[in-house]
Amino acid sequence: MNQPVEMSMRNRTGIDRSPADSQKMIDAANAYMPSSKGNGSALMDMESGYIQEAEPVGTVAIPGTLKGAAKATMQMLAGRNAEVLVDKLGERLAFERTGTRLYDYFINKCETMHCEAPISIDTLKRFRQEESQHFKLVANALETLGADSTSQTPGADVSAVASSGVLQVMSDPRTSVDQSLEAMLNAELVDNAGWDLLVKLADEMGLEDMAKDFQVALSEEDEHLMEIRQWYEQCTLKQAGAI
Ligand SMILES: [Fe+2]
Ligand SMILES: [Fe+2]
Fold it and tell me: How far, in Å, from the CA of 125 to the mean position of ligand 2?
């Protein structure tokens, strides 16, 4: 059940709950020192070895036969590393798809919990719709570059791993609306920076139409971030009895 934060004797995680037992644990830790040699830097040396040997996470798929508009767009990018743009577009594509799912979870939680102001379910539904439209916008942008929007890019792979915790929080039935808001803020901060970067990339690469479309998406993302952040602050302050 979704409860506000409360104090309870059920929480026994801290050392203060049992001074006698915790002293025994401290004594044991002091009595049995690590038997092997080495320290944190030895661990990092080992990690460095793996880094030097590691293969990259993935590669960007080679586009199929370029036709019409895609051919013209790629000619505009001659001399630039178009694969960087494709990688970042693939990353945004995956993120927007997940973003849509995140809002689905959040809307369901808010509806189930009968959320009240400042949270607006209508606004959340609009944000969800915008995430879905952004997904389509990025898919179209990939097509104009002749790239396959169904192929996973390395950026998409890494970003999915990085944001997997947010998805876990949102899909956990125990998390409160406040905790969900914090997870959504995590996602929207990254989302916003991602769109900001895409606008700059498209602009610097001379893709004016693309940059203009991305600017519209960025303005919508600005609103997502501002609202989620405000709701998060207001809900927490309200719960603390500060407002
Ligand atoms: Fe988004
Ligand atoms: Fe967003």
Answer: 12
Does residue 96 contact residue 135 with C-beta atoms inside 8 Å? Answer: yes
For the segment 203-232, the average pLDDT, to the nearest whole number, is 97
Query: Ligand 2 center to residue 191 CA distance, Å?
Result: 6
pLDDT over 50 (residue 146): yes
Shortest CA distance to 203 belongs to which of 194, 193, 213? Answer: 213
Tokens of 184: 């959504």
Of 91, 69, 108, the C-alpha closest to 157 is 91
> To the nearest whole percent, how much of the chain has pLDDT over 70?
98
CA of 216 to the centre of ligand 2 (A): 12
- Topology, domain 61-239: Ferritin (1.20.1260)
Query: Do residues 129 and 224 lie in contact, with contact meaning Cβ atoms separated by under 8 Å?
Result: no
Q: What are the distances in angstroms from CA 83 to CA 15, 89, 124, 141, 146? A: 52, 10, 34, 13, 11
187 and 229 in contact (C-beta within 8 Å)?
no
From ligand 1's centre to the CA of 87, what distance in Å? 17
Considering only the C-alpha atoms of the chain, give the largest distance between any 2 of them, rounded to a whole number of Å: 77
Q: Where exactly are the structural domains of the chain? A: 61-239
